[in-house]
Amino acid sequence: MSRRRISIFGATGSIGVNTVDLIARAPERFEVVALTGGHNVALLAEQARQLGAQFVATAHAEQGAALAEALAGSGIACGAGPAAMDEAAARDADWVMSAIVGAAGLKPGLQALERGATLALANKESLVCAGALMLQTAARANATLLPVDSEHSAVFQALTGEPRGAVERIVITASGGAFRDWSHAQMREATPEQAAAHPNWSMGQRITIDSASMFNKSMEVIETHEFFGIDPDRIEVLVHPESLVHALVGFSDGALMAHLGPPDMRHAIGYALNWPERHPLPVERLDLARIGSLNFAAPDETRFPALRLAREVMAAGGLSGAVFNAAKERALDGFLARQLRFTDMSVVVEEVLAQMWSRGGLGNAAMSLDNVLAADAEARRRAGEVIAGRQ
Ligand code: NDP
Ligand code: MG
Predict the structure, then answer these.
(1) 221-249 per-position pLDDT tens digit
(2) Which domain of life is it from (predicted)?
């Protein structure tokens, strides 16, 4: 059997490292075409040597010399900056992991889809910013899009073999993040260190803080709407502190199919890597008798306004998702730089959306990579102004 040709965009991050771990366990099944990373070129070079990658790229031109030095003598080709990232995306992998964080992951993912590859999508920002463009590109190129976000992988698995017309609702669960039980007054004083301590999942810093603000869940609601083509009013969020049930699908006959698993991203990554087959994965097997009980509660949209904003964004459509995501990314930068309070991130996002909606034209704009990136840049600029105005 020929080996599956793999590329990983964002190899040095949390999802990337877990993907490398799974691939390294089965070298007879995989051939590594390209790896990309950002600042962590030492790890990127180590991964490339370990997996025998053919090409390696860092997004940052100034890191090129350090990457070349770290790969010296390996025979592995490398490059730095936008042209090198384009080359990594152009190399002919059959299966590509999209695990760059933020809107920076959109373009490489689209490039992989344009080549007709199977794109395993951890980068939820791609669907939030440009869902229609991603799906149209995949359809035109006969490419396959697979979910990697744990909730969406769970929904995908629960839907397999089921008639789509029978789906009544999709329920995605949320741990509630670091501040599940904090009051608004407590969250107002929260530090980046406190927000970056997730109770259950080990993830990159940005998504962990997005979990604490529920921006992560609000992005996942939009991701559910885009990926599965389901109406927003059929998507529910359920707080589930144990993070063992990842999602549920409700059918017209009253059945509710739940997907359970330990909070270990190697399940969802491995499912996408092996799809449409299933192979054994190195994840813990749940002992439900020992766990004993599972808890569920409705989310509090007053303490977590991001959930309400996501519904407004879906109702407005078009480029609203790109604005929402970019304003959120800029607000998170402000929080990390201690220029903005935790609770003010949603205030900034709401203000930027209001500004850009009042100007008009977002909802029905045609979607291309250029106008998504233009809306993203304008939203970041406006978010910066709103943040400066609050200081
Ligand atoms: P990390 O922050 O851990 O990793 C991000 C990766 O992207 C790193 O390889 C980083 O490189 C690279 N990167 C950062 N900025 C850029 C840029 N401007 N251009 C190119 N590459 C860049 O993130 P995660 O792995 O946690 O998350 C990745 C994606 O997966 C996100 O979209 C997240 O929402 C999603 N996701 C993550 C989950 C998780 O468990 N972590 C779960 C579900 C979804 P370097 O570090 O070398 O600078
Ligand atoms: Mg998730």
Answers:
(1) 999 999 999 999 999 999 999 999 999 99
(2) Bacteria
What are φ and ψ of residue 220, in 5° steps? Answer: -70, -30
pLDDT, tens digit (0-9, with 9 covering 90-100), for 294-350: 999 999 999 999 999 999 999 999 999 999 999 999 999 999 999 999 999 999 999
Render pLDDT for 183-210 as a digit per residue (tens, 0 to 9): 999 999 999 999 999 888 899 999 999 9
d(CA 261, CA 267): 8
Rounded mean pLDDT of 273-295?
Answer: 98
122 CA → ligand 1 middle, Å: 9
* Residue 172 contacts residue 151 (beta carbons within 8 Å): yes
Atom of ligand 1 nearest to the CA of 12: 9
Binding-site members are 12-15, 38, 40, 123-125, 149-151, 175, 198, 204, 211, 216-217, 220
Q: Return the percent helix, strand and coil in the chain, to nearest 5.
A: 50, 15, 35
CB neighbour list of residue 278: distance below 8 Å, 6 or more residues apart: 271
Amino acid making up residue 291:
I
* Residue where the block lists tokens 């990337």: 16
Ligand 1: atom nearest CA of 43 is: 47
ipTM, 2 decimals? 0.99
Residues touching ligand 1 (Cβ under 6 Å) are 10-16, 37-40, 59, 99-101, 104-105, 122-125, 149, 201, 203-204, 206-207, 265
